[in-house]
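ugh ok fine here u go
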Amino acid sequence: MTIKMAVVMDPIESINPIKDSTLAMMLSAQARNWQVSVAEINDLYLQENKLWLLNHQVRFNQGANWYDIISTQRQPADEFDIILMRKEPPFNMDFVYATYLLEFAVRDGIPVFNNPASIRNCNEKLFALQFPQCTPEHLVSADPVVLKQFHDEYQDVIFKPLDGMGGSSIFRVRENDSNRNVILETLTDLGQIQIMAQRYIPEITHGDTRILLINGEPVPYGLARIPAAGETRGNLAAGGSGIGRPLTERDLWICDQVGPALIDRGLYFVGIDVIGDYLTEINVTCPTCIRELDKAFGLDIAGDYLDFMEDYLRT
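structure:
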């Protein structure tokens, strides 16, 4: 039986076919003769208490014209065997509404990876704090006084928004930094918005390592994102360079701490970020770095993920 998979994602024409992890998953599915369709979050709709998708069945090719749209149709979600939620942030209200709509598919017995309620509930920065044995010293507050006290204690601190992505609006504030007040005023909107403070981890110079987990089990290699000269952010979107490396004993221990909670929440494809000995984020919306790790180590991470999906459908 052909498995029918719908992928909720950004516009397919907007992705980078060389690097995109969602495309790696769809290519692996096509190689298995799965039927692959794509939809955007605004293509989801609820009619008579049932989720429907305006979707485009696609076929992937070699060369510049790397995909074709075979057909476009409106179908109820229960005509698909699997739905992947692979929409990139920003995590705005449209994203939240999409997770509510996808819960109707879950209710009707359609596996949605990752679980939409868990995507919504597990903020990528705050969720990591549920594992305090793994994280650096931290604070979440909108109060500039409290945030300044934290900075006074640790003197070298990272301040960042709770909804940022790609390294945007991340500030390192050292001792006696004259910009501290304006940074906090800007990030908190004069004390109206909660932000995160973390003790600066010097090992960032060796990279912020992305580790991928499938059903709670780590891929044995991570991608260390090394900051560019003069930068404190390792994110590839902020100019960092990616270098693959084997996982350390500490990395594996962190994965052991986090893995069972991911499985319990139906978060089956997750990317955690580790700096030195510390967990800093748990990325549940649309983790990337498949293509880089596959290339560096001869892996087939998307294929491993699809193996899991096939086993899931058999149970």
